[in-house]
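User: Continuing from earlier, I have the next pair ready.

Assistant: Great, send them over.

User: Here they are, in order.

Assistant: Folding the first of the pair now:
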Amino acid sequence: MLILMSIRTAKFWAKYKGRPIVLADDRDFLQALWREWEEEAKLHGHDVHPGEQACWGGLMICAETDAKAQKLYEDMAWFWKTWASPFGQGVPQLLVGSPETLNKQIEKDSNWFNYTLGGETTR
């Protein structure tokens, strides 16, 4: 598993058609990374199809209610601020909430991905 937030690192792994997990909540950056990864992979003779550029990772905390999930996230936020941020790791995409809240966010994100990659949306 390769986790990254850097186009430079993505281009390195594109040479080997390595699919990184991108921990970023910035969709413009994500699109730029996909584009750069795809161009670099093609330069090295790899056949690339939409959706193969990289995986999108993040942090998910699910609890019975949004309030409980948010409370659980507080510990993770402390951990991230203490151990990841000092080493340059930005905050990943966050999915924090009840099952209903998470389902809505995942559907919204799925529609964005499908639209961005030229596929069908559910709405």
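And the other member of the pair:
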Amino acid sequence: MSKDNKSGLPFISRKIYFTIGEVSDLCRVKSDVLRYWEQEFTQLRHVKRRGNKRYYQRNDVILIQEIRRLLYEQKLTIGGARELLKVETKPEAKTQTINYKTQLIKNILAELEDIKTLLV
């Protein structure tokens, strides 16, 4: 499996449906965590097909990777990630989201500059 340079997660294939096991591998999240996230994030929906098995569509896998990034890399709480995802889905809030992310990047750069001066 090749890796995405940005996130370190595998690329998502062009399949239409993914089993919960495949999504678990693609997103590096246990299947029971995925089932829990379904309850916490209303945007996340699975389809039940053949033998009452869970299947996710490609856009769900992308959303799960974003949830994983917010929780594990950005260290947001579930509530914080839920609110951020709600804001990002509203068209009028896209500017706020961009401003938030820009400010976050500026803060990170400032911290890196501080670390750089300490190391020199």
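Worth noting for the second one:
The beta strands are 17-19, 47-49, 53-57. The longest strand covers residues 53-57.
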